[in-house]
Amino acid sequence: MPLAAAAQWQWVDKDGRKVFSDQAPPPDIPDKNIVRRAGVPVARHGVSPTPAAADATPSEPSAPAPSGPKPSGVDKELEEKARKAEEAEKAKQAAEAQKLAKAKADNCGRARQGKATMDSGIRVARVNAQGEREIMDDKARTAEQQRLQSVIDSDCK
């Protein structure tokens, strides 16, 4: 095993994620959440740790803690990527909501225009499946007025 891998700290942060670092965990991490300490080799199948490592107490790290800013336990690049991905998702959702609002406004305008035409009482012709023009009777006109009113009720808010 490389020497760098032996001097690794491993702990579970407050969000339940495993964190690997070459520096000691922050002081707010309880001892029960520290999985591996630097300088204490991990016992393998059938191999016991060295006597010096076995004599070390779990609360004392074998290497002195570095003086300086405490590590946050989370990679800054990973935080930045997650933040950018979250912002991109929010922008995508906002664009989708704006697109949906525009479609509703268009549907509302067309429905109001069609309802005004139906309410005016003029003759309205439609093209049937055979491509022939046919004039709408009162029953078809009433059904179309109800359909247009339901569209207005749902999209014009």
Write up what this structure looks like.
With 157 residues, the protein is mainly alpha-helical. It folds into two domains: 74 residues, no CATH class; 79 residues, no CATH class. It is 46% helix and 11% strand. The chain has four helices and five strands. The strands form two sheets. Strands 2-1-3 form a three-stranded antiparallel beta sheet, with no helix packed on it. Helix 3 packs antiparallel against helix 4. The longest helix is centred in the middle third of the chain and has 45 residues. The protein starts with a helix and ends with a helix.
Features:
three-stranded antiparallel beta sheet; 46% helix
Layout of SSEs?
Layout: H1 3-6, E1 9-12, E2 18-21, E3 34-36, H2 51-55, H3 76-120, E4 125-127, E5 133-135, H4 138-155
Antiparallel strand pairs: 1-2, 1-3, 4-5
Helix pairs in contact: 3-4
SS elements, strand count: 5
Low-pLDDT parts are 44-61
* Main sheet: strand order: 2-1-3
Task: Please tell me how large the radius of gyration is.
Answer: 35 Å
Q: Total helix count?
A: 4
What's the helical proportion of residues?
Answer: 40-55%
Number of domains: 2
Q: Average pLDDT, to the nearest integer? A: 79
Q: Approximately how much beta-strand content do the residues carry?
A: 5-15%
Give, in order, the helices and strands. Answer: HEEEHHEEH
**Class by alpha and beta content:** mainly alpha
Largest sheet: 3 strands, antiparallel
Q: Tell the overall outline.
A: rod-shaped
Distance between the termini: 67 Å
